[in-house]
Design brief:
19 helices
């Protein structure tokens, strides 16, 4: 058995041993940082049950709790959250204050987590597809840039995680990737999209990596350039899409129509700014294998509260909020993601949604996973496909009951808008008993309202928030518990 296969085989039977090893390595490495001294990491390591003492001693945090520490690191301070000076930070949006997050991307995180995670994905793909000719062509990786609004210290770079991964990519890997770094790291997407599409159109691409919604735009531009109806006509050796960032289900039908079904595979990854956590290891099973030895210690907090569980304590079928401690100096950090455990040996998960991406304006508790399943069912039933969507509450007034408004940008409009809305509504009722109760007999909640977005609406909104938001790593909030985003989008849609 190859060394990598032996290593990942341990994930099946040594969940507790591996996770305790990760935590002890993290605490030992960071013992003499400001955080390590504050919480007595040396003492935790000397205790009888380091994991239990760790959870008792450190508070669970969100980004805003550690923002001052992170910004000190951006300003050049060393030994704050992680030993040494960090020179790269992943910028993303989504905090409660509406400000950007600046997540440390340490050398240890790259060395022990992000790059090994990528290698694990490729290794497992080759195991699942032994007839693969992945290396007969090149990879097209859709990434972001280092554009940001900060005045940075010399040598410090802030931008999308993907920009750092591309910028620091080993030379050998860089030789089999397109486009060249000059194009890949362009800031302005109005220039970047045609440039990378032109660069990729003439290459033999065998694999693509990126966010499904953004990659669809690139694929269609390449098809336009080449006068092709399917991307497989341009890249006949294309065989796999390594995707992540958003739920793939609403986009699967469109990708299947653009690629060769006899050759094409789709493989989901959980590679966030904060770390590479999991990946799909079975084409027939859309859940993902948790990476247990990537210098990340996981905690799973039951929804509604309760004692956070370690990876070896989780229950199959339960949904949890995921917390991590990792080699980028995030300690008991709430990612904002909820995951459903589908297997415990090895630990496999599916992303259920975001902790803040839901609609509960009427007590219906609709989660992102519910929404994606309903969108998928409605598209399948009506022949529709979508580019993007978001939804939020419409509060009762003018003799109208409360309901949900769905703002949808179509790739292919449904054969019947009324049928689409009906399937969407019925699917939500079938997967969410709270929504079903509120919809019963139309007493509390009216049927959903579908609003068609103008082509490019969501791109225009991202650009209006600053051009740095327009890019391959930016995601549209799917569900909103208030009308702030929906009203903004509707005003642009006029």
């Amino acid at each position: 058995m190859a060394p990598r296969a032996r290593r990942t085989a341990r994930w099946d039977v040594q969940v507790e041993e591996l996770q305790r090893q990760q935590l002890e390595w993290l605490l030992r490495k960071a013992a003499h940082t400001e955080t390590g001294r504050k919480y007595g990491f040396d003492d935790l390591l000397a205790s009888a049950d380091t994991a239990a003492r760790f959870v008792e001693s450190l508070p669970a945090v969100e980004y805003d709790d550690i923002r001052p520490l992170a910004m000190r690191m951006v300003d050049g301070e060393k030994d704050v959250l992680w030993p040494g000076r960090c020179r790269r930070f992943a910028q993303s949006s989504g905090t409660s204050g509406g400000k950007s997050k600046f997540v440390p991307i340490t050398d240890d995180c790259l060395r022990h987590n992000h790059y090994p995670g990528t290698s694990d994905v490729v290794a497992h793909y080759l195991k699942m597809n032994p007839r693969s000719r992945l290396f007969s062509g090149k990879s097209l990786i859709l990434g972001g840039s280092f554009a940001n609004e900060l005045n940075l210290k010399q040598g410090v770079k802030v931008g999308d995680l993907s920009a750092t991964l591309i910028d620091r990519m080993p030379k050998l890997a860089d030789m089999v990737r397109v486009p060249e770094k000059r194009i890949a790291l362009m800031e302005d997407w109005s220039e970047k999209l045609p440039a990378l599409s032109q660069a990729a159109a003439g290459e033999n691409i065998t694999n693509i990596s990126g966010v499904p919604s953004w990659f669809l735009t690139v694929i269609k531009e390449v098809c336009r350039i080449k006068g092709a109806s399917r991307i497989s006509d341009v890249w006949p050796d294309l065989e796999v899409f390594f995707h992540g960032g958003i739920d793939f289900r609403p986009y699967r039908k469109e990708y299947e129509a653009l690629t060769d079904p006899a050759k094409m595979h789709f493989m989901e990854t959980y590679n966030a700014s904060e770390g590479f956590f999991a990946f799909q290891n079975d084409f027939a099973d859309h859940s993902m294998l948790l990476i247990l030895d990537g210098k990340v210690f996981y905690e799973f907090e039951p929804l509604g509260g309760g004692r956070p569980l370690a990876a070896w304590e989780v229950e199959q079928g339960k949904t949890y909020e995921l917390m991590i401690s990792s080699s980028n100096g995030l300690w008991r950090y709430r990612l904002g993601d909820t995951v459903t455990v589908t297997c415990t040996s090895p630990v496999k998960i599916r992303i259920a949604g975001r902790t803040r991406s839901f609609i509960n304006a009427f007590g219906e508790e609709v989660m992102e996973d519910n929404a994606n399943r309903a969108i998928e069912a409605a598209c399948d039933a009506t022949g529709a496909s979508i580019a993007n969507y978001t939804a939020g509450p419409y509060y009762a007034h003018d003799n109208r009951r409360g309901h949900h408004q769905w703002l949808i940008e179509w790739i292919e409009k449904p054969q019947s808008m009324a049928a689409f809305a009906d399937v969407l509504d019925k699917t939500l009722q079938s997967v969410n008993s709270d929504y079903q109760a509120k919809r019963a007999h139309g007493i509390f909640l009216d049927p959903p309202e579908i609003i068609t977005a103008q082509p490019g609406l969501f791109d225009r909104w991202l650009a209006s928030a600053g051009n740095r938001k327009l890019g391959g790593q930016r995601k549209i909030p799917r569900l909103n518990n208030n009308r702030a985003l929906l009203d903004r989008l509707l005003s642009i849609n006029k």
